[in-house]
Design brief:
InterPro entries: GDSL_Rv0518-like, SGNH_hydro, SGNH_hydro_sf. The protein is α+β, with helices and mostly antiparallel strands. It contains 9 helices and 23 strands.
Amino acid sequence: MNTKALLLATTLAFSAAASAEGPWTGTWRASPQPLWSGNFVLPTMAPFQFVQQTLRQPMRVSLGGDRWRVVVSNTYGTQPLRIGAAAFARSAGGVAIDPDASRRLTFGGQPGVEIPAGGEAVSDPVALAVPALGRVAVSLHLPGPVAPATFHWDARETGYTADGDQVAAPTFAAATPMPVRAFVSRLLVEGGAGSVVVLGDSLTDGNGSTPGTDRRWPDVLAERLAPRGVAVQNAGISGARLLRDGMGDSASARVDREVFAWPGVRSVIVALGTNDIGWPGGPFAPGEAAMTVERLAAGYRQLAERARVHGVRVIGTTVPPFEGALQGTPLEGHHSVAKDRVRQAVNHWIRTSGTFDAVVDFDAVLRDPAHPARLRPAFDSGDHLHPGDTGYRAMAGAIDLDTLAK
């Protein structure tokens, strides 16, 4: 066979292999956030930088499978992010992995990759059998020095760092715990019946749930949807808002890259509004004008129309009550009687406007029947803003699964 024929045969073989691949489904998500400055009301809790270290991050997938891709994000980096080596493995709990179920990752056939500022890298497919709701870990060797410019603040899961290249190590002899996530933004699995993306704030991110136990309401939703072969991607960001940036870009700004830019998304659940109403005039946004029903309604309507353009079903949720939120802390001021009037008017609009393909009434699920402006005591984590484990389970249980897949 001459060189030209060999090249053609190789190209055709590669094309056939590529066409036989997929479809790919997002089965886990940690939405990227930029580091904020030291004068913000909350600390980042992130390391200053990584230099010749390995970062290992455990997580639970929603949909299982046999072939995987890992997405590494440098969305907010101002310099290239260099990955020296990477691995994907089944977790053995804590910092440990199963050494017999660990696979080196490659990027374009190479063991590492340099990701430009603002970019992302998708690994080559790697074979490893992981069941639905199985726990895995991604390890990255970071030659550095590099700051965690792209991170996720409320991991609800402990990550670990150690010196040197230890991506294949069964455990770290000297591990430093890390309460935030960095760089790893998404896991893709081959196959499945698609995914549901939850676009939300700290109530979606799971603040108030027990760390390390997968008890956020999207986790419970994933347990309900797993028998149907449908994945759940938690795109919650603590402090997220629909209309303005908070502890991350506004949902209006990030919905394209969070939802529409990836394959297999069937529905998006929009669980936002608490911070749009609560932040203005409080410690998070003291100089902002109060939110109005009209502004929020316009934002919801536009997001819904954008979803329909992409053929994605859009489910709205009402805004839960938050009287007494963060009372007695430096963050007090999130709630007022005037803000609650706006919340109730917004909820009436969500229920009656017909903007969404379906509505989940989280307000009705979580409110105290004896005092509807506050959370039901049995569902309250204690800060009067975030539910606890029981409340999150009730939220997930209120969702009609058939509305997510029509």
